Amino acid sequence: MIFNSFAFLVFFPVVLILYRVLPKRFRWIMLLILSYYFYMSWQPDLIYLILFTTAVSYFCALGIERTEKKKLRKLLLLTAVFASLSVLFFFKYFNFLSENITGLLRLFRLPVGSFTLNLMLPVGISFYTFQTLSYVIDVYRGDIPAERHFGYYALYVSYFPQLVAGPIERPGNLIPQLRRDNPFSASDTAAGLKMMAVGFFKKIAVADQISRYVDAVYNNAGGETVNGLTVLIATALFAVQIYCDFSGYTDIAIGCARVMGIKLMQNFNDPYSAVNIRSFWRRWHISLTSWFTDYIYIPLGGSRKGRARQYANIFFVFLISGIWHGAAWTYIIWGLMHGLYQIIGYLTEKPRAALWNRLNVPPDSRPLLWLKRFNTFVLVLIAWVAFRSNSLGDMLLLYKALFAGWAGLDIAGSLSALGLGLLPAATAILSIISVARLDKQIALRIGEFSGFGPVSPDRAGMYINLIWTIAAAWLVLLSAGGASSFIYFQF
To answer: To 10 degrees, the CA torsion angle through 434, 440, 446, 452?
Structure first.
């Protein structure tokens, strides 16, 4: 079941009605059953993976808390980590590793045959695996007590709004809220529904419609119509597509939970206004960035053991980030690019500051701020090419076109190849502007998500009307087809 489907439009009101009608002591049972139903509507046979990961982490955490023997505590921690990661590795990375080992052996002319398994990637496995890992590690560190009620812990792992694509919740935030009695609140309900509306708009009216122009280039990397301009436009549109797709899911997830009085963590904060790559990653997929920071970067030493060690830690974290995103070299290259960006940023920080000082440019000047934002966005775009490419071969073709495909450029022909006529282009631009305004003035303002300040009812109404106007324009352009899945479901 996906959010942008008719089934969910029936499912969610049923959940809300039961949540408000049932006594508190029965709510967790209802939520757990319906969360499992939500997941099983995709892959009913793979529910045992969630059950296995949940049970192992639950009992290991109880054992960690109950024993004072250091070796046994560490053994239980390693057991839980191994169990969770082995399931993730087997289903997500086994075929990738097997294919690469086979290819390497064949380079040395060894007669080996291909060995892959017909595996279905479980939806959301990377997300709920990280939630179970954070729980066990937090219990091991003594940051939180072990949850003794198996039902509430199972609900923490499988809570349907954020089960499939996050945000990756911490147990210290979500479990107490699931245990708490959350009485009906008109303000929470209104805020949640607004967040959901913004999320649906981002996904259906923007991301899904822009995708056709992105696919026209990225699914035809070797085509004659692919040149520097088409790759540049398609990549810029993909930057909008993936943001609206992923943050749209997050908005819907946060909104769903908020209607039930539960506050999930913020996952995006205007990432394309970042002034450097470090700032970008503090604004993009915040729950994943903070997870890597708390459970990998800091335990490795962070920035506490000298510059060389810090750079090595950054590089390793972004290598893991690339691997986490997908079993393909394109994702690994994308992750390593962001790691290199940050290392180069650190290495050039002082020379750049000295240059601006010598030119008498104040560090907080608006032109310099916009220049930094532009440079950061360009770097992010260059990396998005690798992320979106269907293969290494396509990636090389697209980079070649982007950097060397500008000779004899036919602008009209390039736009025609993308399918970008006047009306689609105007609608896309208006949609992008609308999303930017909504994020700053409505969506991120709801609750305690940011400090952008209040919006007057008149202005809020204007933005909502703009949403419906642009959505109607997209419907005119929309070809036949059903609801599309969210991009991050594949991770």
So the answer is: -150
Question: What is the C-alpha separation between 253 and 4, in angstroms, rounded?
Answer: 12
Q: How many CB atoms lie within 10 A of CB 57?
A: 26
Q: What is the pTM of this model?
A: 0.86
* CA distances to 393, 414, 431, 478 from 400, in Å: 11, 16, 30, 32
b/e code 214-237 from CB counts within 10 Å (16+ = b): bebbbeebeeeebbbbbbbbbbbb
Q: How far apart are CA 280 and CA 131, in angstroms?
A: 23
Q: Give Cβ neighbours of residue 19 (< 8 Å, ≥ 6 apart).
A: 27, 30, 31, 260
Concatenated DSSP letters for 295-339?
IIITTTTTTTT-HHHHHHHHHHHHHHHHHHH-SSHHHHHHHHHHH
Does the structure show a pLDDT above 70 at 279? yes
Tokens, residue 282: 């503090």
Mean pLDDT, rounded, of the chain: 85
Residues 6+ positions from 488 with CB-CB distance below 8 Å: 165, 166, 245, 246, 249
Neighbours of 358 (CB within 10 A): 8
pLDDT digits (tens, 9 = 90+) for 342-373: 999 999 989 988 888 888 888 888 888 999 99
Residue given tokens 């969360």 in the structure block:
35
For residue 317, the model assigns a pLDDT of 95
Rounded CA separation 245/428 (Å): 15
3 state DSSP class of 247: helix
Q: Report DSSP state, residue 3.
A: T
C-alpha 103: how far from its chain's center?
A: 31
Query: How many Cα atoms are found within 13 Å in the side-chain-facing hemisphere of 106?
Result: 9
Spatial distance between the Cα atoms of 330 and 384, rounded to a whole number of angstroms: 10
Of the residues 149, 285, 325, 338, only one is catalytic, namely 325
Nearest to 467, CA basis, from 280, 251, 165 = 251
Please determine, for residue 217, whether its predicted confidence score (pLDDT) is greater than 80: yes
C-alpha radius of gyration, the chain, whole number: 24
With CA atoms as reference, report the closest residue to 338 among 301, 392, 376. Answer: 376
Is residue 444 over pLDDT 50?
no
- Range with the poorest average pLDDT among 284-298, 302-316, 372-386, 469-483: 469-483
Question: Is residue 479 scored above 50 in pLDDT?
Answer: no
Torsion of CA 100, 101, 102, 108, to 10 degrees: 110
Is residue 149 annotated as a catalytic residue, yes or no? no
Q: In this predicted structure, what is the pLDDT of residue 120? A: 80
pLDDT over 70 at 447, yes or no: no
Bond preceding residue 23 cis, omega within 30 of 0:
no
